[in-house]
């Protein structure tokens, strides 16, 4: 029997870097363990570019009782050593909305810490990658007696995709192959929708001016419209897009927050459904649904009195 | 613009059913919001059959300051109405290790509540489905400038599978098709490993005797051994198993707990690596790895002084 080396350092015994997930809703979605660590760290950074909570920095500061240092993308990528400064002699916390290990840059921070001999610890939390189960998708086939209770609803999700904001000149469709492949395999697709925080215009970028555009968050409406345009393009090229205007989709907004909204309906309906403020996500269902999935989605179906509405089990999935 | 109906009830305004995730480690991995709800509910159930924490019911009761009612599978499936009793006039909490919407039965509880007119609310937490990012897999191709920061590491995971305990007469191999398909698409596979809690022997089941076997949790060693047997069977049948003894895998134990262990090595090494007590999970990598992934996995590689060891970047993936 062999033992892996370099294991996680026991909590509280060393000065170290903590990567702490904040969950998805508001200040109180941090874990008790996470809050205890935040309250005793010498510096607390808030990663502010891959996601947002429904409350701002000030609300977090008030609840945590700590000043937070906003860490934007530039800071984390270019000045990681500042973040890690003295983390070997005092505790430093790096707060991330959702779970800390959802995005590339945070692995990078761990690797830099490790190279500097600074121990690290991750305090996990909910992220959209698992909380998406809130809509009732994905039950599995329960024909194997005694096994089904452990089979996760998330199993029927295929590879996750990102849908990015199109520009006049940049309209990538490559993500759509994964959607098609999932759909053809009977798997749902979770589409994470683009966010643009602290982006520079091309002009400002070229001129080296640190002037930033206002933040933008892609809505389910925008994502659905882009998807329908890809579907049209595929038809024009004589390809089978595998999804249509009538494909059953689920729009999700502010998952985990008090005012979370979920809407189940056709891709066409997703173009106009009003889900309110960010963040939004979109699920394209995989086709055949389990009866329990249909029952759950019916809780969220766009109502009959809408001109476009249909009940979920009447939908051509 | 249309508004979806049946939205989530605002927190604290109604008596309702709360489904609360406990996260993955110990008592303090509950969120602050979850703890507040637990402390004021009239009845608090602990779901005790799809997963376990590193601490027992008593430790949770002490930290929460509340008595917990153990809800086993039978209770939740057959006596859901007892759990929901009076949840329209008082708050009832249903605690689940990980995130509450990982398993079939909990959707069922939501549907029953909804039919009884009882509002519900989910308080999410980390689950193995997202916390698996702790091993450093899965960075994405960052060639799209300005987009990569939002691309999750979890994107390169394909469909998740379960590996169940084989018996003398029941040795299902069907899950292996998904592993192969993921591997052939360059996607990693998260394998959740079987747990058997409060299981009855066939004899006791037939005789209707409520005598239960001791709990069993599949280890990474057992999973790897079963996988290698499937690989052998595929070879005997002249099929290409797509993975071999040398395929790079990651074994994970007690993710999110103080004594979490991660080991990266070959599938063969996974047969003997000592990761300690439950719960275990296994990742079969998808083949080509990003340099940052390799760097992260190297933190966890089975050490050189082991007779079987190899550094990760020397592995034939």
Automatic annotation (TrEMBL), chains A, B:
GO annotation (BP), single: methylation
Record GO terms (molecular function): diphthine methyl ester synthase activity
Enzyme Commission code: 2.1.1.314
Domain Tetrapyrrole methylase: 16-269
Region forming the signal peptide: 1-27
Keywords linked to the UniProt accession: Methyltransferase, S-adenosyl-L-methionine, Signal, Transferase
Residues engaged in binding S-adenosyl-L-methionine: 24, 99, 102, 127-128, 193, 255, 280
Domain of life: Eukaryota
CDD domains (alphabetical): DHP5_DphB
Reaction equation(s) it catalyzes: 2-[(3S)-amino-3-carboxypropyl]-L-histidyl-[translation elongation factor 2] + 4 S-adenosyl-L-methionine = diphthine methyl ester-[translation elongation factor 2] + 4 S-adenosyl-L-homocysteine + 3 H(+)
Pathway the protein takes part in: Protein modification; peptidyl-diphthamide biosynthesis
InterPro entries in the record: 4pyrrol_Mease, 4pyrrol_Methylase_sf, 4pyrrole_Mease_sub1, 4pyrrole_Mease_sub2, Dphthn_synthase
Function: S-adenosyl-L-methionine-dependent methyltransferase that catalyzes four methylations of the modified target histidine residue in translation elongation factor 2 (EF-2), to form an intermediate called diphthine methyl ester. The four successive methylation reactions represent the second step of diphthamide biosynthesis.
Record NCBIfam families: dph5
Family: Belongs to the diphthine synthase family.
Name of the featured protein: diphthine methyl ester synthase
Species whose genome carries this gene: Camelus dromedarius
Source taxonomy: Eukaryota, Metazoa, Chordata, Craniata, Vertebrata
């Amino acid at each position: 029997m062999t033992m892996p080396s370099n294991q996680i350092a026991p909590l509280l015994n060393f000065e170290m870097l903590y990567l702490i997930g904040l969950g998805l809703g508001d200040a109180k979605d941090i874990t008790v363990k996470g809050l205890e660590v935040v309250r005793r760290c010498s510096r607390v950074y808030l990663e502010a570019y891959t996601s947002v909570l429904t409350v701002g920095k000030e609300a977090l500061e008030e609840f945590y009782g700590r000043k937070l240092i906003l860490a934007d993308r530039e800071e984390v990528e270019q000045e990681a050593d500042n973040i890690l400064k003295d983390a070997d002699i005092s505790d430093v916390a790096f707060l991330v909305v959702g779970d800390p290990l959802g995005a590339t840059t945070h692995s990078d921070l761990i690797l830099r810490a490790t190279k500097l001999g600074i121990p690290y610890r991750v305090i996990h939390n909910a992220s959209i990658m698992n909380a998406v189960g809130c809509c009732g998708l994905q039950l599995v086939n329960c024909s194997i007696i005694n096994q089904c209770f452990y089979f996760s609803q998330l199993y029927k999700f295929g590879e996750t995709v990102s849908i990015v904001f199109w520009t006049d000149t940049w309209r990538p469709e490559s993500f759509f192959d994964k959607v098609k492949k999932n759909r053809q395999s009977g798997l749902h697709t979770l589409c994470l929708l683009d966010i643009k925080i602290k982006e520079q215009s091309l002009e400002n970028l070229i001129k080296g001016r640190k002037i930033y555009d206002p933040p933008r968050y892609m809505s389910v409406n925008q994502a659905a419209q882009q998807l329908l345009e890809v579907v049209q393009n595929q038809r024009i090229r004589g390809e089978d897009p595998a999804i249509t205007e009538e494909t059953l989709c689920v729009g999700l907004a502010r998952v985990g927050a008090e005012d979370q909204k979920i809407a189940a309906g056709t891709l066409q309906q997703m173009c106009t459904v009003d889900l309110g403020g960010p963040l939004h996500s979109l699920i394209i269902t995989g086709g055949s649904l389990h009866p329990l999935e249909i029952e759950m989605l019916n809780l969220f179906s766009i109502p009959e009195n809408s001109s476009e509405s249909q009940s979920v089990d009447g939908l051509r999935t």
